[in-house]
Amino acid sequence: MYTNKDIDSALALWKTIGYHEEMPLPDGVTAELENTGHILGSAMVEFSRGESNIIFTGDIGNTPDPILPDPEPLHHARYLVMEGVYGDTPHENREHRREALEDVVENTIREHGTLLIPAFSIERTQEILFEIKTMTEEHRIPPVPVFLDSPLAIDATELYRKHQSFLKKGLRKDGDGEETLFNFPGLRKTYTTDESKQIKETPAPKIIIAGSGMSNGGRIVFHEKEYLPLPTTTLLLVGYQAPGSMGRALLEGAKEVRVLGEKVPVRARTENVSAYSSHADREALFAFAVGVADTAEKVFIVCSEPKTGAFFSQRLRDYLGVAASAPQEGDTVELEF
């Protein structure tokens, strides 16, 4: 078992590194971080030695993002290890995603229903809050109670206020930027369990944003147990739903799910707006790889379902002529570096 002492010892080893700060490592290797525009402070890592380098992208952001800057483009990599979550799937037109969200909100209000939004606590939640705030201020939707029912998301939103240098330049404000960015009439932050339980006392229409984003746990499952049986409920999925997750089952049209050990009928309407994903889609990933097509000796597609990785690596081979592959668990690759 880990204790607080173990956590303190581990955190004592952490060192904060800014973007584009060259960090020396053993054997003549240096490391440098570059912005991937995925979540606040996300970074890819470039390891270099002499003229050779290898880049591990981690998660690549979906552009254009209303809050974060675009991922930094690549221009040179001998080896590239890149994510491929949506390597075979295009998102809907991101320019129209706010309209899609607006339609879902308006339909829910018209039916005097409850809108459930399972959302990851970092980036997805802040993006949805920003969009609802904008639509409310522009009088595109009437003000309704919006519950941010996630202690982690509430704390993460505070981080966005404290670290505005990572936001798009047009959003950086002096003073209390969180008030400017995310707060709006009707928003209620329910930090405690008791506050969360009281949400059901607020009559519909209302919006509930809670984790986890794939409905695998967190407070959203309690709300799903309460509201999925109601035909006036709308479940809005705004992110990737992994195979085997309850979110994936709901996305695929399950008529019944097991929640907290009980079978729950699904009479709610399920909507999906994948353009709110924080991951780049098929076209954006391809455009990202184009930047190193002339220099890359090998490209490895990771963090994807097997069929997705196979499709995307084949696409890179066919259209860019690069040696791309999608290694699976247990595969070993030796590289000259």
Automatic annotation (TrEMBL):
Recorded superkingdom: Bacteria
Protein name in the entry: Beta-Casp domain-containing protein
UniProt GO molecular function: hydrolase activity; RNA endonuclease activity
InterPro entries, per database record: Beta_Casp, MBL, RibonucZ/Hydroxyglut_hydro, RMMBL
SMART domains reported in the protein's UniProt record: Beta-Casp
One of the Pfam families matching this protein, by short name: RMMBL
Keywords (A to Z) from UniProt: Hydrolase
Boundaries of every Beta-Casp domain copy: 125-250
